[in-house]
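Researcher: Sequence recovery benchmark, item below. Answer with residues only.
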């Protein structure tokens, strides 16, 4: 699979955020369609969902295809955001780790994205 192969494909994205001690902070699910890919700038997803403000309708993932897996047929729903997608092409999962604990108010936060390379379990 190449970056060009996923353009116009649908995906469900699972994100797990961790603090510096590897304690889970939160999990979220997004769903959308791949609208652009670039090795340097990442994979652009146009999100689906009725409660999205205009500035949040696009999400960019790292360009690694390691966490992209063919999705089993079915309906996927995130109970928190009511995002619903039927029969997506791919399931994508990333672990996102905070790389600094102490920061001043207004300072940029740094995060390390780690691809989950084991196929996600569904069901």
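Model:
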């Amino acid at each position: 699979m190449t970056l060009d192969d996923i353009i116009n494909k649908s995906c469900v994205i699972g994100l797990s955020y961790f603090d510096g001690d590897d304690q889970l902070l939160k999990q979220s699910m997004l769903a959308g369609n791949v609208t652009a890919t670039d090795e340097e700038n990442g994979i652009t997803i146009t999100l689906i969902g009725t409660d999205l403000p205009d500035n949040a309708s696009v999400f960019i993932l790292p360009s690694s295809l390691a966490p992209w897996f063919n999705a089993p047929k079915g309906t996927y729903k995130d109970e928190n955001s009511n995002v619903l997608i039927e029969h997506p092409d791919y399931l994508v999962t990333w672990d996102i780790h905070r790389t600094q604990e102490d920061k001043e108010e207004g300072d940029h936060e740094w995060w390390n994205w780690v691809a989950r390379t084991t196929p996600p379990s569904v069901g």
